[in-house]
Q: What sequence folds into this?
C-alpha cells in the first residue's frame, strides 16, 4: 500500500467515526478542559487575532479560542475529514460563535497562505500526521512573525492505560502491533524530546514541552468500552469488523484488565498529555 493509499484509508476510517465524535463532543471538551485552558494561557489569543485549529475534530479548542479574539478576530476550524469539519461548524452555530468558519485542511499540507495566522492550535492531532516534521514546518509557514503555536498529544502508553489497554488487547487479537507499522497512532509523539525537536527543527523558537496529568473517569465498564472504542479512529472500524464471539471475548478480557482502576464511583484511569508550545521568530 502506497503512502497515498494509506492516507486515504486512514481518512476513511476517521470519517467512519465522525458521528461518534459528534455524539461525544461535549465529553471530549470536558476531558480536555485542562489541556485546552493551559494551551490558551500560553498561546494567549487576544482580540483581533486570526486563529487556526488543525485536526479539529468537534472543534473544542478553536471554539474556546473564538471567545478570546472577539470582536474582530476570527477562528478557522479545520479537519482533513469533511464530516468532522461540518460537526465543528454546526457546534459553532449552536454556540453562537459568529466569528468561526470551517475548512477542510490536511495538516501534512496546509493549503493556506504564508503568515496568515497569529495562533495555530492542534489538540490531539499531530500524532496522526504521516509526516509530523513536515506538518510542523507547514505550521511555522502559516504563522505570522511572533505567532504562537500550541500542540497537545498523548504521553507514553504506560501513562495512559485508559487507551493503551485496548490497543494491547487488540494487538493480541489481530496478531500484530496496533496500529500496524507505517501507520500513525495516538502514541507516535509520546516522547517529549522528539516532540520538542520537531518544533525546533521547523524553525520555531521558545519551544517548551510540559506534562499535564489528569484522570479519565467512567461510571461503568460498559460506558468506558463504548466511548473508547467508538472514538478510537482507525481502530474502531477494525474492532467493529470482528466476529461477535471474538469481540465479546476481547471485551471480557478488558473487563478483567481494568479492575485495578475500579472504585466505588466507577472507573478512574490516570492520563498524561504532553503540551508543546512555541513561537515563530520575528
A:
Amino acid at each position: 500500500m502506497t503512502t497515498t493509499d494509506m492516507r486515504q484509508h486512514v481518512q476513511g476510517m476517521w470519517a467512519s467515526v465522525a458521528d461518534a465524535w459528534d455524539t461525544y463532543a461535549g465529553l471530549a471538551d470536558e476531558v480536555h478542559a485542562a489541556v485546552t485552558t493551559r494551551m490558551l494561557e500560553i498561546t494567549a489569543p487576544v482580540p483581533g487575532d486570526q486563529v487556526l485549529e488543525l485536526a479539529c475534530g468537534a472543534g473544542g479548542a478553536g471554539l474556546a479560542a473564538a471567545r478570546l479574539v472577539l470582536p474582530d478576530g476570527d477562528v478557522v476550524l479545520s479537519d482533513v475529514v469533511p464530516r468532522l469539519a461540518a460537526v465543528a461548524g454546526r457546534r459553532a452555530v449552536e454556540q453562537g460563535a459568529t466569528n468561526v468558519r470551517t475548512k477542510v485542511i490536511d495538516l501534512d499540507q496546509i493549503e493556506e497562505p504564508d503568515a496568515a495566522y497569529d495562533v495555530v492550535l492542534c489538540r490531539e492531532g499531530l500524532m496522526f500526521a504521516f509526516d509530523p516534521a513536515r506538518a510542523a514546518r507547514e505550521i511555522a509557514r502559516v504563522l505570522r512573525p511572533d505567532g504562537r503555536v500550541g500542540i497537545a498529544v498523548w504521553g507514553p502508553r504506560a501513562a495512559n492505560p485508559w487507551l493503551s489497554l485496548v490497543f494491547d488487547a487488540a494487538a493480541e487479537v489481530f496478531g500484530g502491533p496496533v496500529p500496524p507499522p507505517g501507520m500513525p497512532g495516538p502514541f507516535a509523539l509520546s516522547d517529549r524530546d522528539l516532540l520538542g525537536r520537531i518544533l525546533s527543527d521547523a524553525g520555531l523558537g521558545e519551544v517548551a514541552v510540559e506534562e499535564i496529568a489528569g484522570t479519565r473517569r467512567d461510571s461503568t465498564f460498559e460506558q468506558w468500552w463504548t466511548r473508547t472504542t467508538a472514538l478510537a479512529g482507525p481502530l474502531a472500524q477494525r474492532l467493529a469488523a470482528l466476529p461477535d464471539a471474538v469481540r465479546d471475548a476481547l471485551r471480557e478480557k478488558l473487563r478483567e484488565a481494568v479492575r485495578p482502576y475500579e472504585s466505588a464511583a466507577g472507573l478512574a484511569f490516570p492520563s498524561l498529555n504532553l503540551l508543546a508550545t512555541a513561537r515563530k521568530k520575528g
Observations:
- Residues 3-158+180-217+271-280 form a domain with the Rossmann fold fold (CATH 3.40.50.150).
- DSSP finds twelve helices and eight strands in the chain.
